[in-house]
Design a protein that fits this description.
Distance between the termini: 53 Å
Structural class: alpha/beta
Number of strands: 8
Number of helices: 5
Shape: elongated
Largest sheet: 6 strands, parallel
Length: 218
């Protein structure tokens, strides 16, 4: 997840189902690596936490693809803070350069907004577990799923309680200009009244003027 405007809090990205290689590449490159100072796959810049749904058959992406993704992130200077399952997977990988940039995560890492090229990684057993963890730990700003499974994507988008929930698209689309609101003035994770990117209209409230000639309510 993450927001194009930054200051987005803790945002998460789920790699689930069978991830499309093109969408996965977009998620890594566009969400994180181009904007190191902005707040999630990567605050790695745009994603703070990567959640991988392990289908029990070598992971969603397959162990080789998991390792290639980790290697690409590390080659770009990203530090990976891993839960025990992902740490074991990457520690066994014979990938050059991983050891110096892969370390065990603490529980605090999964709730941290890094504002740096740091990604907390965790593997979960199924989609519902991923949704529960994201709803618990994220800031309800932008949380994304990368998958070719339309059913899983629909469930994720309906169940994740965030202002913006992209499927196979960059989390940086959470931006007032991209939404057609004009210049973005702010981003709200509240539920009333404005939510998500805020333009001038979203900052306005209401006032009702009643003109009468002595009428009373019955």
């Amino acid at each position: 997840g993450g927001g194009g405007g930054g200051d987005g809090g803790v945002d998460e990205e789920l790699l689930g189902g069978v991830a499309d290689a093109g969408a996965l590449g977009l998620g890594v490159e566009d969400d994180g690596l181009g904007h190191g100072g902005v707040g999630g796959l990567v605050h790695v810049n745009e994603t703070d936490t990567g959640v991988v749904f392990d289908d029990g058959d070598g992971g969603v992406l397959g162990h080789e693809a998991d390792e290639r993704l980790a290697a690409a992130l590390c080659a770009a200077g990203v530090q990976l803070r891993c839960d025990p399952a992902s740490l074991a997977l990457l520690s066994s990988a014979q990938v050059s350069g991983l050891s110096s940039q892969v370390s065990p995560a603490t529980e605090a890492d999964f709730r941290a907004e890094f504002l740096d090229l740091i990604l907390a990684v965790r593997i979960v057993p199924d989609l519902e577990s991923a949704i529960a963890i994201i709803n618990r730990d994220s800031s309800a700003h932008t949380d994304a799923i990368i998958t070719a499974d339309e059913t899983a994507a629909s469930r994720f988008q309906a169940a994740v309680d965030s202002a913006v929930v992209p499927w196979n698209a960059s989390t940086r689309f959470n931006d007032g200009f991209e939404f057609g609101f004009g210049a973005e003035i702010g981003i709200s994770t509240d539920r009333l009244h404005a939510r998500g990117p805020m333009g001038l209209r979203e900052l306005c409230t209401y006032k009702y003027l009643i003109d009468g000639t002595g009428q009373t309510r019955a």
